[in-house]
Write a structure and sequence with these properties.
Largest sheet: none
Structural class: mainly alpha
Oligomer: single chain
Strand content: under 5%
Distance between the termini: 46 Å
Shape: globular
Number of strands: 0
Order of helices and strands: HHHHHHHHHHHHH
Radius of gyration: 23 Å
Amino acid sequence: MEFLTGNPRASWQPVMTANTTTSNYWLNWRVLLCSVWILISTAFASFLIWKYEGFRNSQHENRESQNDNAGALYEDEVWKPCLKEIHPAWLLAFRVFAFLVLLVLLIINAIVDGGSIFYYYTQLGSLLSMYGCYQYHNKVGGESVDNVGLDAEQGTDFIVPVHGENFNMSNTEKASHSHDEQLARKAAGIWAYVFQIIFQMNAGAVMLTDCVFWFIIVPFLTIKDYNLNFLIINMHTVNAVFLFGEAILNRLRFPWFRIAYFFLWTIVFVVFQWIVHAIVSLWWPYPFLDLSSPFSPLWYSSVALMHIPCYGVFALIMKLKHFLLAKWFPESHQV
C-alpha cells in the first residue's frame, strides 16, 4: 500500500517561506511585475477571442462564412472519428472509459491525500476534462451514435464512386459536391463548442503540467529525497495517454487562436491561488508560484511563455495526424 500512497511523511508540501496574509507579502515590486504579466496575458487572450471567436463575423452569419471561419465547428465533428471505417460508438466508448478511469484515480487521490489534491492544476484540469465529456455526451452523445446508421443509409456521410465514368468526375463536379455536402451539415451547438474548447485547453494544459512536473519539479524533489508514489506518477502519465488517444481518434479542428482559452484557464488558476493565499497562509502547490522569491517575476513570465510551445507542439501533432491520414487513407479520412 505504501507503494501506492508513498510515505505520508515524504508527501511533498513545500516549506512555507513567508506569511502570505501580510500586506508586505503583496505590496512590493515582485507582485506588481507578476500582475503585469497576468494582465498582458489576459489582454492577449481577450484580443484573440474578440478577433476570431465571433464578434468580427457577426455581420456574416451564414453557412458559407462559417466554412471560412477559423473557429467554425459542425455538429458531426464532435462525435465522429477521423476515419469513416471507425464507428462513432468506439470513440464514445473510449471517452466513457477515460472518464471512469480519471474519476477512479481522482477518488483514490482524494481519499489518500484529502481535499487538498484539488489544489493542483493537474487535478483541476482532469475535473474540467471529465466535466466536458460528461456534459456533452449526456446531452447528445447517444443520439448522435444512434443516428449514424441513418446518415450512412441516406448517403450524407460518404458516397462510394461507381467504377467507370462516374469515378472520373471533373474537379469542378467534385468541388461542387464537397461544397453542397458542407452546406448540408449542421452547425454545432453551444455544448459542442464547449466540448471542443475544453479539449483544446486540456491539450495545452497536459503538455504544460507534465513538462513542469517531469522537467522542473521532479529533479528538485529528487534532490530533496522526495519519494514519488504510484498515484503521483499516474496522474502525470494517464492524463497524457488519454489525451493522445482522444487526439488520434477524433476529427476536431485545432485552430491556433484557441490558445487564448489555455491562457485564460491558467490565469484563473493563478488568480484563484492568489485569493486563497491572501486569505489563508499556507504552502504553494507549485514552488514557482511563491511571490516571496526575487525570481518570481522570471518564473511567471517563463511559465507564460511555455504556453506557446506546449500548445504549438500539440497543434503540430494534430496537423501531422490529418496529413498522414489523408495520405494513407484518402477515401476514409474525415476533416
